[in-house]
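Quick start: read one record
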Amino acid sequence: MPKIAKRVAAVREKIDRDRPYEPREAVKLVKECATAKFDETVELHLRTGLDGRHADQQLRGSVVLPHGLGKAVRVAVFADGDAAREAQAAGADIIGSDDLIQRVQGGFVDFDVALAQRELMGKVGGLGRILGPRGLMPNPRNNTVVAGADIARAVREAKAGRVDYRLDRTNLIHCAIGKVSFNEDQLFDNLQAVVSEIVKNRPAGAKGQLLRGATLTSTMGPGVPMDVNQVQAMAAAT
């Protein structure tokens, strides 16, 4: 068996894998166990009771984190006319219509979030094979396809730290909630915001308890299991 580094072994000893932790305690442990030399991302992983094979059990959306993501977000906007000018004034990094579409078709994907003016989706829709696999394809269900009048708001939200979530093929949800450099209250607030939004958007076809498991971790740290009932109760506290 490969030898486990002393640092990794010491970190693992802090966590009882058979014990589900209260969310605030889990946040504290994740920070303590993040020993990498860079500012690790804190991630939430949820196991759901959904079956994504059924259309009425699909779950996806977005939420603006109260304290952001702790990183600069590069926003690209497919817009023209007044909407393009408003996107620029709101701080968008890349703006264009036909010209931007051509750049993406040529392989340009140097951005973190893509927004699209609703009126341009007939053209932007052809970029699905490029942007889709990267999770960048604008979609009205996660508020990245908006009317021209709402472009500025959408850009500001994206820059402030809006995160998207979606059910994957194994019925799990993975979502970043901040950086280990955040204090415990900031991470807890962001965690609560994500959980509340997911619970609020419970699909019509969901049966039984929506959340079946919850783990908090950092980029290089071990997973900390959380008490899923307490996690779900966070939504009721908002």
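The chain has two domains: 17-68+162-236, 75-160.
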